[in-house]
Amino acid sequence: MATAHAKSEHDQIRVALWAPPRSLSTAFERCISTLHGKVPLVIFHEPFTTAYHLGPEKQLSSPVPMTKIITKEPGYSYSWVRSQLEADFPDKKLVFFKDLGYSIDGRYDYLPSGYCHTILIRNPELVFTSMNNLLLKFPVRIFRIKLKKISPKGWIYEEMFNLYEHLTKTLGQKVIILDAEDIIENPSAMLELYCKETGIPFSEDMTNWRTGHEDMKDWRYSKKLMRVNGVIGQYDRAMTSSGLGKPSKRTIDVTKYPEDCQEAISYSEQFYLKLYEKRLRLPDDACADVEVK
């Protein structure tokens, strides 16, 4: 199997992870950050997402008018983000960034050079019902925000598929795709396979991180974005958990969710399945059930 390493002349590894919201992407990011203290690294957390939502070229207006001023990040232009990601890090072996896939839609000329691009996907049913559930929690529910107000035109998955098409067909790159449920079922093996494909050093304890934020000392991020997502509860499980654990079985009755949520799921299915067919798979079906704990 051909790998997709992106290395500099000094064997520095640069990897990008694109994902939808509510896809375990921050938990995955924390798995990578367990290399703190073992591998010199720097991790950029959602820089293009910050530009998309809070920067001077933001693509979506805040659904809560009173927060428009306090959540501005005037320095987060798309060109500035690219310059940060393309900067020299002579003392780092790994440069990694995680972003929401839709945040770069229509801005492909700002994709940073020198990166191995990877995509994390998850069943739209799980993603959109989880997003909707967040909007119903206090204090967010006070503002009665609709899912459509915080989603791009293509309901996230069309934008992600378009990104995949651009990376593979226009730029001719190999893109590694992971499905969140495969990681949940067999995290250690999937992480090892991902690391083999990208060149990231693999460690047996990558699925377990500290309950504190010691590993996040290598992260660079917008404090305002973190604050907003903290209020929403976007990162609650990834930030308060200590690793990956056994899942609880649950069924979802989509018909009980709002029309826009059902529309998002239905529309996104076609793009999800196209990406799902191309996902990275283990050589056998052996798996061990786990989840963020």
TrEMBL record:
Pfam family of the protein (one): Sulfotransfer_5
PANTHER family per the UniProt record, alphabetical: PTHR48312, SULFOTRANSFERASE
Protein's name according to its UniProt entry: Sulfotransferase
Lineage: Eukaryota, Metazoa, Echinodermata, Eleutherozoa, Echinozoa
